[in-house]
């Protein structure tokens, strides 16, 4: 990339309406003018909070349960290792974006690495992954509404309400305008989990523990779970860090992409410290009686309070999943057209059609598929892992392999080994996690036959 081209790409794009410079050009969105949305409006703090909100959402509520399967020490080690790998993967996304300014999504990476088949493979995986996660988010909102209202109405109604709210807010056009919602959502979800963390520390026993015996926490330093339970727990931790593929879209809407690493360091530091704190503390005080999601661990009153705070956070997570998936499809449909950045009828029809379509599919998945929780674990292992591991190892090799042909340094050799390790580890976790999820689905069917479609039963 020439210096002139690089400077043009990195030049900050004004964030407020009225400050947009006529003729500002972006490699992904094209000409950015006052006649349409400004897709380059997110500052580094907004970027950090959007990153954190794609991470801290559904997965964090299952970390104490993952620690129960693995034990405290293996759980902490696995979490730190996964945090390290995904942080490196996230860093590679930032550097790759600076070198390849035309890249908008992981499908672009797939085409660079594997040609057209790679584009279709990773693009399809990206859409399926976020649609299933959006469906999981709608189910999480219904759990929160059931908990707060003491199951005042049919659960299917709450899932529909979640879908409507997600569609309305996800249809806000730019991440720059959504970032303020991410601040609110992040504050609410952190507050809700801290309430539970404090509550389990001051109560004499978790809500699920027997009331007719002296309570002593049965937490395990090292777990003794089966391979399928252990690998499912590791997949749960990966799910908690699986916001990685969304970082492509977030980076594309940054006002100044050179500040990406600053946002990334803040995001991963806060996320990892928070995961460790709540995972260790809640599991230490609850032991094997920790609830899943963890917000139900401290009794009915605290459960209502914590879900009351968590609901805005769950709503923001779900709208982000819908928005990012809809935006991906929208950009792919209109890239190179003036309708991408102009407020035309075609622009609005396609944009609302994309967010509405994603919402409907996610709603159907959340409501109609039996054994939904296990199915999400299966999709997470099958699609989430290859969104966070293998492509990033390939991206580093794509940009740096030729450098070692003439002059191989120790750093280059180590980074090649590391990239190959990330790719191999990703495939292992994908296969093993898929196997564990399939076994779990089979066991669930044997025990209960799965859940009913559009069920009215209380899921809280």
TrEMBL record:
**One term of GO molecular function:** L-amino acid transmembrane transporter activity
Where is this chain primarily localised? membrane
Give me the segments passing through the membrane. 73-93, 120-143, 149-169, 181-202, 230-251, 263-285, 305-326, 347-369, 375-398, 410-435
Alphabetized InterPro entries for the sequence: AA_transpt_TM
Where does the record place the Amino acid transporter transmembrane domain?
43-438
Q: Which GO terms describe its cellular component?
A: membrane
Q: Which range is the signal sequence, renumbered to this chain?
A: none
Instruction: Alphabetically list the UniProt keywords.
Output: Membrane, Transmembrane, Transmembrane helix
Name the domain of life: Eukaryota
Topology in the membrane? Answer: Multi-pass membrane protein
Cell location: Membrane
Looking up Pfam families in the UniProt record yields: Aa_trans (PF01490)
Q: Which family does it belong to?
A: Belongs to the amino acid/polyamine transporter 2 family.
Kindly provide the name given to this protein in its UniProt entry.
Amino acid transporter transmembrane domain-containing protein
Species this protein is from? Penicillium cataractarum
């Amino acid at each position: 990339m020439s210096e002139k081209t690089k400077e043009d790409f990195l030049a900050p794009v004004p964030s407020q309406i009225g400050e947009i410079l006529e003729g500002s050009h972006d490699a992904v969105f094209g000409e950015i003018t006052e006649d349409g949305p400004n897709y380059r409006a997110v500052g580094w703090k907004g970027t950090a909070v959007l990153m954190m909100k794609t991470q801290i959402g559904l997965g964090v509520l299952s970390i104490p349960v993952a620690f129960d399967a693995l034990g405290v020490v293996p759980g902490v080690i696995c979490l730190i290792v996964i945090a390290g790998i995904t942080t490196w993967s996230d860093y590679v996304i930032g550097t790759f974006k600076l070198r390849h300014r035309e890249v908008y999504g992981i499908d672009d990476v797939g085409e660079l690495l594997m040609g057209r088949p790679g584009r279709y493979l990773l693009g399809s995986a990206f859409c399926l992954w976020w649609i299933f996660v959006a469906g999981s988010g709608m189910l999480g909102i219904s759990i929160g509404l059931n908990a707060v209202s003491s199951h005042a109405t049919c659960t299917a109604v709450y899932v529909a309400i979640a879908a409507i709210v997600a569609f309305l807010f996800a249809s806000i056009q730019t991440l720059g305008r959504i970032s303020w919602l991410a601040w609110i959502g992040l504050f609410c979800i952190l507050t809700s989990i801290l309430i539970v963390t404090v509550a389990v520390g001051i109560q004499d026993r978790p809500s699920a523990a027997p009331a007719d015996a002296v309570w002593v926490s049965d937490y395990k330093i090292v777990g003794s779970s089966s391979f399928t339970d252990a690998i499912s727990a590791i997949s749960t931790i990966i799910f908690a860090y699986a916001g990685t593929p969304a970082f492509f879209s977030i980076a594309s809407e940054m006002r100044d992409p050179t500040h990406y690493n600053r946002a990334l360091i803040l995001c991963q530091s806060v996320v990892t410290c928070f995961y460790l704190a709540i995972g260790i503390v809640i599991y230490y005080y609850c032991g094997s009686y920790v609830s899943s999601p963890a917000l139900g661990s401290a009794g009915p009153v605290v459960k209502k309070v914590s879900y009351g705070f968590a609901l805005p956070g769950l709503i923001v997570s779900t709208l982000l999943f819908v928005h990012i998936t809809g935006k991906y499809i929208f950009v792919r449909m209109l890239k190179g057209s003036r309708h991408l950045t102009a407020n035309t009828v075609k622009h609005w029809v396609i944009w609302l059609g994309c967010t509405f379509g994603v919402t409907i599919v996610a709603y159907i998945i959340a409501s109609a598929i039996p054994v939904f929780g296990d199915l999400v674990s299966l999709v997470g292992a099958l699609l989430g892992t290859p969104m966070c591991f293998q492509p990033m190892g390939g991206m580093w090799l794509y940009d740096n392999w030729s450098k070692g042909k003439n002059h191989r340094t120790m750093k280059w050799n180590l980074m090649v080994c590391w990239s190959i390790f990330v790719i191999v580890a990703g495939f292992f976790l994908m296969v093993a996690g898929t196997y564990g999820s399939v076994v779990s689905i089979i066991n669930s069917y044997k025990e209960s036959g799965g859940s009913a479609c559009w069920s009215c039963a209380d899921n809280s």
